[in-house]
Amino acid sequence: MPPLFRPVVDSKNFSLDASGVAGFFGGEEAITAMATVHLYRGRRWLGWYNSPGSYTIAKDFGRISKSRLWGGLFPGPNHDPVVAFKLDVKTGPKYVASRSGTVMQKTGHFAHLLVEGMDDLTPVSLPATRTTTTSRIFIVAVPEINEHLPLQTMSIHHAIFASFPILVSFSTCTLCALCADWYCFAMILLGIISSGVTCFVIGSGVLGIEIIKKPAEGSPPGDGILLMHNGVVILKAEEKDVNAITKGKFSLKLKGAPEYTVIGLCSLLLEVQFLLQLLLIPQGSLFGQIMFLISVVASWGYNSFLASLDKEKLQRKLFCDTIGLHQTAMLGFEAGTRASMAAFACFVLCEDLPRPLKGIEPMKFLLEFVPNETLVWQKWRKQVVAQVQKEEGEMSTFQPGNVNMSGLDSTEQLLLKTLLQDADDAHKGYMEYRNSRPSMNISKES
Questions:
Q1: Which residue of 47, 168, 169, 182 has the fewest CB atoms within a 10 Å radius of its CB?
Q2: Average pLDDT over the chain, rounded to whole?
Q3: CB-based contacts of 160: which residues, under 8 Å, 6+ apart?
């Protein structure tokens, strides 16, 4: 069939030979973009464009398939789907429960997301006589979490951006057909089909949240702390609700489990696309090769846009929206010293508990924050515990005259007086927090 029109740009003596680049160029961006397919509602329908990096995508996602055949075609360690799509790759900080005695040196992906999201809060400064190392304390009232959690995926507003590479890919494909450049026409069309099918198959997986639904009967409240490098997150909730954060994780159910043969077929299709483009694109006209290159660059631009999005922020929003945890249930405070942070956190963990305290050891938490075993710190911790054990609202006992200074030289006495002032600042801040709690709306009704 003769061409309907002759392109202005044409040459039989020059070839771009962009086929080799197309298989590798933009591969990392394409993989990262594909990792967002489960986070947006309807995203699986929007992969119909000539995406670059087919070889890189095939090698990466081909390792999801688990059989001898796919292991030979895509050598390397097999990836679990949630790991392949970066849905469960980070570990959270140490968790110490206040009443159950649970200590977890490492928590799960959700704890990591929650801790990283604390940077979005604006902390309230606690009274501070001095400032050395600024430490932050965050209080999170975790809502009651239902056993059945339908995941709240993001809206489809991004579809307007996906229309750009789709329109460019189909337009360039059509122009190649009008010019009778069937090599470039076929390769752009194959790129559209392989990318669209892969995106649809992978995007058809069901994303969910796995939590421990039923803790042991009679379990105490799950209040506890997540220890950060320079701060702490205090969780206040029932045991099962705290478990959703410390032990919960995303789950991803793809078609064809457990071997995921259909994922292997999609990866094979992408490799065939790469090989055919390598062979046939150089046979096309200069105009057809330019059209092919335009479609690849447009698709790379869209993939780069998706790759630039903060995946952890998207995952955090999905998780918090699903369990009903909103910023109205979070508070942030900033202490001038680590000692002040430790005392304030201890006061918060023991608030509203009947005195004398039972089932909770304030000393254990103080040792988590300041494990120093010098005589000064031992006396300081004992004084903080003595204040915590008192009825809430009673006068502070952090004046130096209330502390036994025996065994300390003048320098150590001065240090202890300074640390007691830090604790007194924390106590004042805690009383202000208690008095203003209703207006701060830190209830579990989020």
A1: 182
A2: 86
A3: none
Comparing CA positions, the residue from 316, 343, 328, 313 lying closest to residue 431 is 343
Give the separation between CA 217 and CA 100, rounded to whole angstroms.
12
Q: Give the model confidence (pLDDT) of 293-305 as tens digits.
A: 999 999 999 999 9
What are the structure tokens assigned to 80, written together?
């679990």
User: From CA 408, how far away is CA 165, in angstroms rounded?
Assistant: 73
For residues 96 and 216, give the distance between their C-alpha atoms in angstroms, rounded to a whole number: 18
Full-model pTM: 0.85
Using the structure block, give the residue that is written with the tokens 């990866």.
267
Residue found under tokens 């995946």: 311
Token code pair at residue 308: 């630039």
Q: Give me 439's structure tokens.
A: 């207006």
For 354-360, the CB contacts below 8 A with 24+ separation are 355/389, 355/390, 355/391, 356/389, 357/388, 357/389, 359/99, 359/220, 360/98, 360/99
The span from the CA of 315 to the CA of 250, in Å, is: 9
Q: Which residues make Cβ contacts (< 8 Å) with residue 101, sequence separation at least 6?
A: none
Token pair in block for residue 325: 């945890």
CA angle 411, 413, 418 (to 5 degrees): 100
pLDDT of residue 391: 81
Using N-to-C axis directions, what is the helix angle for 159-178 and 182-203, rounded to 10°? 150
Cα–Cα distance for residue pair 162/47, rounded to 1 Å:
8
- Are 220 and 359 spatial neighbours (Cβ–Cβ below 8 Å)? yes
* Least confident stretch, 259-273, 359-373, 398-412: 398-412
Query: Is the four-CA dihedral 306, 310, 314, 319 of positive or negative sign?
Result: positive
**N- to C-terminal Cα separation, the chain:** 66
- In residues, how long is the chain? 446
| Alpha carbon separation from 136 to 106, 109, 132, 265, 372 (Å, rounded) | 20, 21, 13, 50, 20
Structural contact between residues 193 and 72, judged by C-beta atoms closer than 8 angstroms: no
